[in-house]
C-alpha cells in the first residue's frame, strides 16, 4: 500500500511505525543526522531524519521508501510532522547530474519538461487542471448534456485557412481539426445538447503568451437555443467550475500564491458590452492603435486585438461578454441578425484583469442559401463541406454553441501570464519536443 504524506500527517499516526514512498526532493546532511525531504507521487512533502551513515549514496530524485516512527516537530515543513527513520529501501539511485534545480532558465525548463513536471509548482498546476476538467464534466452531466467525441483528422477548415495544419492522409490531403464544432452540429440532430473535450490545432505563426498550436478545447452545441441561453450556459458552467475548484484545491492555490478571494466572487451574471460600444470605448484609448505605421485607431469592423481585450477588462473582476460582431470578422457559420444586415449573432467572453478571450460562441447560420453564399465568400471548397450542408437540407433547426480554451481559462484562474505554464507538454511555434 502507498500512504501519501497528506494522509500520514495526522495525529492518529504519531508514534506509529510508518513508511512513505517517493523521490528525494532535498537533502541536508549534518554530521550525525541527515534531513531528507521526500516528495510523494502527488507532490506532498514529508521530512525524514535518518542516521547520516545510511545516506551516503543518496542523490536528489533518487526513488526510495523510507521507514520509521511518525513524530511531531513544529520545525518540520508543511504541517509539523516528520518521520524519525531507521531504514531506507532504494528503488533507483538517480544520476547525480539532475538538470532541474532551484534557479533555471525558462528554456531549460521547457527542454527538460519531462523532468520539470516533477517540480511542485507544475504538480499543483496539473492538479488544478484535473479539477477544472472534472468539474466541467460534472456540470455537463448534471445539466443533461451528452458527451460525444469527434474526429481530429478532417477535410476542411472551421476557423479559417490560415491556421490549418496540413497532413498527408494516405494519398489525400487532410488537416488537423481546429474545432469539432461542425461535427457537434451534426450530432445535435440525434442527441440534443452535446459537448466534448478534444484537442484543437492551430498553426499559429505568432509567438504570444496566449497561443498554443495544440490546445484542449471544450465545445458545446445545442438545438433550439438563443444567444441569451448560450450566454447563461457559459456563465453557469464557468462559475460552477471556479466555485468548486477554489474549494477542492485550496492547498494548491495557496502553494501557487493565487489569491482566491476574487475567484470566489465569480457568479452569474457576467458583464456585457456590445461590440459596437466596445469599439467606441477603445477609440477613446490612446493606446489602441491597429496599424503602427499609419497610427490608425481601431474602428468598427476591426477584430479586437490582444491590447484592446486587455483594456476592456483591465479594472474589472468579472468576465465580460462582447456581443454582436460584424460578420466579416467572424467565420462563415455565424448566423446573421435578421434585423441588421452584416451583424453576427455571436459573443466572445473576455476574462477579467486583462486576460483576454476565453470563449467564443453564438448561433449558427441555419439557412442553406445564406450559408452557401458565405462559404463562397470565404473561398471554401464546397465539396469538403457537402456533408455539413446536408444538415441544412434535412430538417435544419435553429441552434448554437460555444468553444472554451481550457488553457486560456487556466491562465486566468491561476493568474499565470504564459499559457505554456498551464499544461505539462506545451506545443508552440518553436516547441514540439519533448
Ligand atoms: P475560436 O477560434 O475563437 O472559436 O476558439 C474558441 C476558444 O478556443 C481557445 N483558443 C485557443 N487557446 C489556445 N491557443 C490557441 N491558439 C487558441 N485558439 C483558440 C480560446 C477561444 O475562445 N468553433 C468556434 C467556437 C464556437 O463558435 O463554438 C471556435 O473554435 O479560448
Could you characterize the architecture of this molecule?
There is one protein chain. The protein is of the alpha+beta class. It has two domains: 5-92, Beta Barrel (OB fold (Dihydrolipoamide Acetyltransferase, E2P)), CATH 2.40.50.140; 113-422, Bira Bifunctional Protein, Domain 2 (BirA Bifunctional Protein, domain 2, 2-Layer Sandwich). It is built from 13 helices and 18 strands. It has helices spanning 5-8, 106-111, 113-116, 120-142, 181-191, 227-248, 250-255, 261-264, 275-283, 306-313, 368-377, 386-393, 406-414, and strands spanning 17-29, 33-39, 45-51, 63-72, 81-92, 146-147, 153-154, 166-169, 172-176, 194-201, 214-223, 271-274, 289-291, 296-297, 320-323, 346-351, 356-363, 399-405. Strands 6-10-11-18-17-16-15-12 form an eight-stranded mixed sheet, with helices on both faces. It has a five-stranded mixed beta barrel with strand order 1-2-3-5-4. Strands 7-9-8 form a three-stranded antiparallel sheet, with no helix packed on it. Strand 8 and strand 9 form a beta hairpin. The longest helix is centred in the first third of the chain and has 23 residues, at 120-142. The chain is elongated, with a radius of gyration of 26 Å. Bound molecules: aspartyl-adenosine-5'-monophosphate. Aspartyl-adenosine-5'-monophosphate binds next to strand 11, strand 17, strand 18 and helix 13.
